[in-house]
Design goal:
This protein is mainly beta. Helix content is 14%, strand content 49%. It has one helix and ten strands. The protein has a ten-stranded antiparallel beta barrel with strand order 1-2-3-4-5-6-7-8-9-10. It is globular. It starts with a helix and ends in a 6-residue tail after the last strand.
C-alpha cells in the first residue's frame, strides 16, 4: 500500500508539474480567443477604393509571429506606402496599431465596439515636425464583404471628430493584379 501511494504521488507530481510548465509556455496571443482574433476580419489581399469607387491602391494583411501580430502593407498607385503592425498589447489587453508612412506615423489602441467595428484611438504624428493630433481609425465589416475604413482627427476648436479619409477595402479577385 505504501509503495502504491509513493508511485501515485510520483506520477501525480510529474503529471502536474508537466501540465503547469505547458500552461506557462502557452502563447496567449496565438489562441483563438477574444480579443486575439477580433481583428482577423482584415486578413487577406484587398483592392482599396475611395468612397466614390475609384481604386487608389492595394492592402495586404498577414498574420505574423505565430499569429500574434497582423502586418499591413499599403501601397497606392501614386507611389505612397505605409506599414502597420497590429497586436494585442499584453499590458492593456487592447488592440494596438503602430502605423508608419513617409509622411506620418500613428500610434493608437482600442477594440471592438458594440457593432463589431474595430475602433482605435491615439495620436497621429506628422513626419515633417508639424503638431500632432488625436486620431481615430474605424474598420467596419460590411454585408457585401468589404471593409469600410474611416480616419478622423479631433478638432480642438469644434470639440468634434472630423473625417479626413474614408475608403473601402474590397477582396481582391483571383487573377486581378
Amino acid at each position: 500500500m505504501k509503495r502504491t501511494l509513493q508511485i501515485f504521488l510520483i506520477l501525480f507530481t510529474t503529471t502536474y508539474s508537466f501540465s503547469q510548465e505547458k500552461a506557462k509556455t502557452q502563447i496567449l496571443c496565438a489562441s483563438n480567443e477574444s480579443p486575439y482574433r477580433d481583428f482577423d476580419f482584415v486578413l487577406g489581399d484587398w483592392d482599396f477604393l475611395t468612397a466614390n469607387g475609384k481604386k487608389i491602391g492595394e492592402q495586404v494583411y498577414t498574420k505574423q509571429e505565430q499569429g500574434c501580430m497582423i502586418l499591413e502593407k499599403f501601397t497606392t498607385f501614386s507611389g505612397s506606402t505605409g506599414t502597420g503592425m497590429s497586436f494585442v498589447d499584453p499590458s492593456t489587453g487592447l488592440w494596438r496599431q503602430v502605423w508608419m508612412s513617409p509622411t506620418f506615423h500613428i500610434d493608437y489602441s482600442g477594440g471592438l465596439n458594440e457593432k463589431g467595428d474595430m475602433v482605435l484611438e491615439g495620436t497621429i504624428y506628422p513626419n515633417n515636425g508639424e503638431k500632432s493630433s488625436p486620431v481615430r481609425g474605424v474598420w467596419a465589416k460590411q454585408n457585401d464583404g468589404t471593409i469600410r475604413q474611416e480616419f478622423l482627427k479631433y478638432n480642438d476648436v469644434s470639440e468634434k471628430w472630423e473625417s479626413f479619409f474614408l475608403g473601402f477595402a474590397h477582396p481582391k479577385k483571383k487573377g486581378n493584379d
